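Quiz preparation item.
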């Protein structure tokens, strides 16, 4: 029996696996938060599938998404990353990953964890949307506007409202699995 899934993931095994195993699952691990934040910032202007295909390369290039290590990268390391064909070689995106790591550490220091910070926007609650079709799903909301504005105020780059909405979906702050998707109920129970 074929499972009903959100339309956006159909047609690619990597996309389907991401949808079925990760997307919308509540994240409470700062390393995973930093990974998704970095990857979603790299996605700006590109498809998520492009980033998923490069994910393992990013993990190697960015020291397993260890925010402390990434925050210590100097100009030589950034130049080295820009020669890596396994990642998106956009100087602004690579430099933002490093500066965002520094800001990420500042939030950890202030809140005890990035997790505490990001979940504070919903008081630790998951927003359970009930979209019937992909066309119903917005690209941003007042919540993503608020998160984006706060991160920008703190000096983060590539964290516009649309990117932040995708981030909140991916880390499970927002459950945007369609009402017809088999994962919707499973994720809502986590």
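Solution:
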């Amino acid at each position: 029996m074929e499972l009903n899934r959100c339309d956006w993931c159909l047609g690619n095994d990597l996309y389907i696996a991401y949808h079925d195993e990760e997307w919308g699952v509540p994240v409470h691990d700062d390393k995973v938060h930093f990974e998704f934040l970095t990857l979603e910032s790299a996605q700006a202007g590109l498809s998520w599938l492009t980033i998923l295909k490069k994910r393992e390369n990013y993990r190697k290039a960015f020291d397993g998404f260890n925010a402390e290590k990434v925050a210590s990268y100097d100009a030589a390391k950034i130049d080295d990353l820009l020669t890596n064909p396994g990642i998106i070689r956009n100087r602004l995106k690579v430099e933002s990953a490093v500066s965002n790591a520094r800001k990420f550490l500042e939030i950890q220091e202030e809140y005890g964890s990035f997790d505490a910070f990001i979940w504070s926007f919903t008081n630790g609650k998951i927003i359970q949307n009930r979209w019937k079709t992909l066309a119903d799903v917005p690209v941003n909301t007042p919540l993503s506007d608020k998160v984006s504005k706060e991160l920008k105020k703190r000096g983060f780059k590539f964290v516009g409202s649309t990117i932040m909405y995708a981030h909140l979906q991916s880390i499970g702050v927002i459950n945007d699995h369609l009402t017809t998707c088999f994962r919707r109920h499973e994720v809502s129970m986590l």
